[in-house]
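Sharing a chain and its predicted structure for anyone who wants a worked example. Both blocks are below, sequence first, tokens second.
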Amino acid sequence: MQEHDLNFVRVEMAIAEAPPRSGKGLIGWIRNNLFASLGDTILTLLGVALVVLIVPPLADWLFLHAQWTGTDRTFCATKAQGGIHPDGWSGACWAFVGQKFQQFLYGRYPIAERWRVDLVGALFLVLLVPLLIPRVPRKGLNALLFFVAYPIVSFFLLLGGWFGLSHVETPLWGGLMVTLVLSFVGIVASFPMGVLLALGRRSRLPIVKGVCVAFIEIVRGVPLVTVLFMASVMLPLFLPPGTTFDKLLRALVGVSIFAGAYMAEVIRGGLQAIPTGQYDGADSLGLSYWQKMGLIVLPQAVKLVIPGIVNEFIGLFKDTTLVYIIGMFDLLGTVTQNFSDANWASPQTPLSGLVFAGFVYWCFCFAMSRYSQFIERRLDRERKR
């Protein structure tokens, strides 16, 4: 059988091609991300048009024609700085925010005692920042101080009545302080509650599973407003005569229960995503149920559902605004309460206050979102290694 020669020799030069388009630098990034195709070009032009239409008037209202200083509404009406806009409208009334800023932070907490709130906030940052930085050592001690010692110290500092500190009733609390207290306690309490409920729902014991399923479905089936209303108004009716609970404590319990039911379903989704081989491997090592869950299953499950967990935390942080319906004034409630101040009654006051409150909520939620993405990238790098 004759073998064919498979060698190929080019006898003429290949046709010259255009050099490849640069994908590096600013021009390359713009070409690849904004004008890569006809559709991308159209969307880019529409986006630029929207920016041109929205950003200049927004910047004009927020900064250029805004009133930054003043002691009453006349400053926002007469526009001592820059004059009224040629179209007849004035900008944001940041003077209102500046005058009410302390109240937005502390509510009606006594001025002479606000150093206690500042100390609690400083301790929060001192303990939280090392806990969030992966390279800082002694995470166990840090977590013990943050989740156990810090709440106890904060309770005595904020409420007072001990160690020579004057007692400050919780109805005087308000503003951002109440928002952070509700969200911090809700986040810390809802996570372990959600883990236990998720494990209980997957339990093989019928009674345990039934109780957990009933709890989760009942709580998830009603809005948070109903839970807060029941905790604040209806719960005292079922208690013995003369037995009362602080309104803030009732709100904390209601928020924690509500968030724990939703957290349970997030954790359960992570548990279902774990292959059965992980359970079998843990059983083959002779681990007990809690050892298997604590050392093998839960660490993997929580890693898978970090976006869902952070999403619940963000939702809980924003849902604290609903305590306004039971007579508590968080940040948004304190801002809206000050709209009735006759000294600051102007067309720009409500919108300015709401923009300020929205910006504060956005800063906290954005920080939680970015940190969760950082943790996801770090865990992904460790997995690839």
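Comments welcome. The CA atoms of residues 128 and 268 lie 27 Å apart.
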